Every structure is written in structure tokens, then in C-alpha cells.
Amino acid sequence: MSKFIKNHIINELTRELDGHGEVLVVDVSGLSGNEVNSLRLGLGQKDISLLTVKNSLARRACESVGLGALGPVLEGASTLLWGGEDVVALSREITKWAKEFGSLKVKGGAVEGRTLDAAGVDKLSKSPGRVELLSIIVGLILSPGGNIAGALLGPGGTVAGQIKSRAEGEEE
User: Which CATH number fits domain 3-127: 3.40.50.1580, 3.40.50.150, 3.40.640.10, 3.30.70.1730?
Assistant: First the structure.
């Protein structure tokens, strides 16, 4: 491959990865052509991109966008994955596909400048995603207000009920 072509690939990959703080790496060499196509279609529906590229070119592109932590994972056949809702959704999706296709190997990834191995990606897939974390935070924020409202309404409701029963008793 000529130097011009290599530079073009590096520039294109740099453009694609720019703005993504997390990239996962898998080995799809054990998959059949039909399996790879269904993987690409399934991930594409989740807005996840994947690209099989030469490791040396991937290293150079990743280093230029701040994903240098990916270097140790780029050994052997490698396919880069990025995109999706968040890194947890990305790891969940690829872990699901790895279970479906036993020959799809998760090699690791880079998240916020840190290197993850395959076990780290699996752990990440089991953690709550962005939407779940936001709902937990909102619940924690609203729970004191709910407690206060319950405390105010509870005794107030009791007093109102007693006054009403007294009023009904006087009428008779």
C-alpha cells in the first residue's frame, strides 16, 4: 500500500473517530461473511460504526485523536467499534453479539484515556447506562421532596378527618 493511500486512510479514520472518547476493539476473523454482514446491519441500526483496519494505521489515527490507550489492544486481527448512545450501550451491544456469535472475540477498548481488556468491557456492559444513571439521580433528587410532602399531608389529612367527623357528629 502506498504512503499516499495510508495517509488517506489515517486521515479518514481520524475524522471518523474525532469526538469519540471511547472505542472498542473486537476480532471478527472467526465470523463468516453472512455473520459479519448481520453484525454490521445490527450495529448500524444502533448507530454504531465498525471498521476493520490495519493495526499500525489504527494506532496512528487513534493517537492523533487522544485514544493512544488503545495501542496495547491492537494486536492481531482488529475491528474498531465506536458510536451508539454511550459507551455502556456500545459495550452491551457488542457483548450481546459476542454471545450470539461465539467466534466474535472482544479484545478490549479505550474509554476516557484508559485501556480496557475484554473483562473490563464485560464489566462495563453490566453497569448502568446514561439513561439509567439519570433516572437514579432524578429519583434521589425528588425523594426528599416526596418525603416532605408525605409528612405534611399525613398529619394534615388525619387532622382534617378528625375535624370532619366531629362536624358530622355535631350535626346529628
Answer: 3.30.70.1730
